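Run log, item B.
One chain of 72 residues. Sequence copied directly from the ordering sheet:
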Amino acid sequence: MWCHLVSDVSIDELHFFALYLGLKRAWFQGDHYDLKPLLRELAIELGASQVSSKELIIRMVPPRRRRVRLTQ
């Protein structure tokens, strides 16, 4: 079960956490990183929060949040 790694603080925080997980910056997809199941488990162990899709949209930092709300 793949998931998205995002930040509700900043893109800089997201990149820092992704680097800590061993992800390459080239894997950044504009507002998130995809995580395989084992990395998902590790991210949660390191403090990431698991949230629903609805909560994800509410928490995401701009510009993604603005883009999602404009299209709804």
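Observations after the first pass:
- The chain has one domain: 3-71.
- The helical segments are 11-20, 37-45, 53-59, 64-71.
Flagged for discussion on Thursday.
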